[in-house]
């Protein structure tokens, strides 16, 4: 479970059960950026794990995630498309191994990508006072 606590203004702090947290809002990461970052990190963890098992040495790895949304002023503004670009370097990286690692993450292991593709049922509730 993740909890999000209002910190005043338009700033919110997201924290998890292990105690990690980060700020979202005008002074930090936007919720939309956090979504894109979650997709990138989920895939990156898979790719690095797979490449390590294949004894591939990665010295630099960056992901760029972009997406298209409805124009500002049109609501809601869901992502219509998303694109993940993996940029890796390392001595003698095997392009076949990299391609397979990215493919396995994208099609099998990355929970965030699978969730975005499946359009899960979303339920909402509210409570006043505790």
Draw up the topology in text.
Blueprint: E1 2-6, E2 12-16, E3 21-24, H1 31-53, E4 60-69, E5 79-89, H2 95-109, H3 111-118
Antiparallel strand pairs: 1-2, 2-3, 4-5
Quick description:
With 130 residues, the chain is of the alpha+beta class.
Structure description:
The protein has 130 residues and is α+β, with helices and mostly antiparallel strands. It contains three helices and five strands, in the order E-E-E-H-E-E-H-H. The chain has helices at residues 31-53, 95-109, 111-118, and strands at residues 2-6, 12-16, 21-24, 60-69, 79-89. The strands form two sheets. A three-stranded antiparallel sheet has the order 1-2-3, with no helix packed on it. A two-stranded antiparallel ribbon has the order 4-5. A hairpin with a 5-residue loop joins strand 1 and strand 2 (12-16). The protein is elongated, with a radius of gyration of 18 Å. The model has no long low-confidence stretch (mean pLDDT 96).
């Amino acid at each position: 479970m993740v909890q999000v606590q209002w910190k005043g203004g338009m700033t919110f702090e997201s924290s998890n059960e292990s105690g990690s947290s980060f700020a979202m809002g005008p002074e930090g990461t936007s919720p939309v950026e956090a979504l894109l970052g979650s997709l990138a990190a989920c895939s990156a963890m898979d790719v690095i794990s797979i490449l390590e098992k294949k004894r591939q040495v990665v010295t630099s790895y960056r992901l760029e995630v972009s997406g298209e949304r409805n124009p500002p002023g049109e609501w809601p503004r869901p992502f219509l498309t998303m694109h993940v670009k993996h940029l890796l370097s390392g001595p003698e990286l095997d392009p076949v191994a990299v391609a397979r690692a990215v493919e396995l993450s994208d099609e099998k292991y990355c929970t965030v990508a699978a969730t975005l593709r499946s359009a899960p049922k979303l339920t909402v509730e509210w409570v006043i006072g505790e």
